Amino acid sequence: MKTVVKTGLAAWGLAAGTAWSAPITFNTALPVYESGYVLREQFVFMKNADDPTSAKRDMEVTGLVSVLGYGVTRDFALFGMLPYFDKRLDMTMGGQGLTRRRLGVGDLTLLGRYTVYEYNALGRTFRIAPFLGVKAPTGDDNTRDGLRRLPPPVQPGSGSWDALAGTVFTYQTLDFEIDSQLSYKANREANGLQAGNVAEFDASLQYRLWPRSLGNGVPAFVYGVLEANLVYSAKDRVGGADDPNSGGTTLFITPGLQYVTKKWIVEAGVQVPAIQHLNGTTLKNNYVLSTGVRINF
């Protein structure tokens, strides 16, 4: 069984310097101003309970994801992301209910993003920004309970050094913003398991709902957000062989709202699977709820 929590690339949607919106579930190409910082705190709750087996598996993950970004130059920004997880797996074994649970700090992700193309006109901008990063195994990956070693989805960390890369595109006007992203995460082996590599395509539309007309002295804005995430995960490899009960393709749809000021953003969204084609007995996702705040300083 493999459970994916989208807190790696999902938390990089950060921008600073003026009152603009940003994607909830992925990155943006808008800049972090030079020598400036941005902080994002995101609460995530994930429910996976659509189990095709008789084990009646029910997986819940509660997480607090902290992201700090720094503008090294006008075009280059660095980010660090560290999650804290409460993972719980309820299941039935031998006719008896069983709970496996673990709380702890997850794996640290470090990422650099560089703007390679920028076009500016009156009231609009278009940017292209590739990014490259690494995930370090800072979370505990060998936790045991009263039974035995916890399964990998319940461990706070993966135990592996993983690489991620991609490119994000942003088109912003005074009324709306469109973002899209292509990304790839290459996972390495740890503890006899190599999680499947993940390829993803994301798209986001943020449209200003209020105020409908711009004027001098407007202190804040409300944006409606609609996002799509197409995620393909290759099969895990265990002992050098593919695990038939892992990997697959999922299309997520995320409606959301953002309240945007010049210095901070408050947002909320619900990520729901519109299509899930998963392999074997892979546990399906029900929904992911995320709320958070972003602060520029």
What does this structure look like?
The chain is an all-beta fold and 297 residues long. The protein has a single domain (9-296), classed as monomeric porin ompg (Porin, Beta Barrel), CATH 2.40.160. It is 0% helix and 59% strand. It is built from no helices and 18 strands. The chain has strands at 37-48, 58-71, 76-93, 96-105, 108-114, 117-121, 124-136, 162-173, 176-186, 189-190, 193-194, 198-210, 221-233, 237-238, 241-242, 248-260, 264-278, 287-296. Strands 1-2-3-5-7-8-9-12-13-16-17-18 form a twelve-stranded antiparallel barrel. It has a four-stranded antiparallel beta sheet with strand order 10-11-14-15, with no helix packed on it. Strand 8 (162-173) and strand 9 form a beta hairpin. The chain is globular and about 65 Å long. The relative contact order is 0.19. The model is unreliable at 7-11 (pLDDT under 50).
- The count of helical stretches stands at 0
The percent of residues in helical segments reads under 10%
The CATH architecture name reads Beta Barrel
H/E series, N to C? EEEEEEEEEEEEEEEEEE
Average pLDDT number: 91
Distance from first to last alpha carbon: 41 Å
CATH topology: Porin
Beta-strand content bin: over 45%
Extract low-pLDDT stretches: 7-11
> What is the 3D form?
globular
Number of strands: 18
* CATH class category name: Mainly Beta
Radius of gyration equals 20 Å
Structurally, the number of domains stands at 1
User: Structural class, from secondary structure content?
Assistant: mainly beta
Name the CATH superfamily assignment: monomeric porin ompg
Largest sheet: 12 strands, antiparallel, barrel
Strand arrangement in the largest pleated sheet: 1-2-3-5-7-8-9-12-13-16-17-18
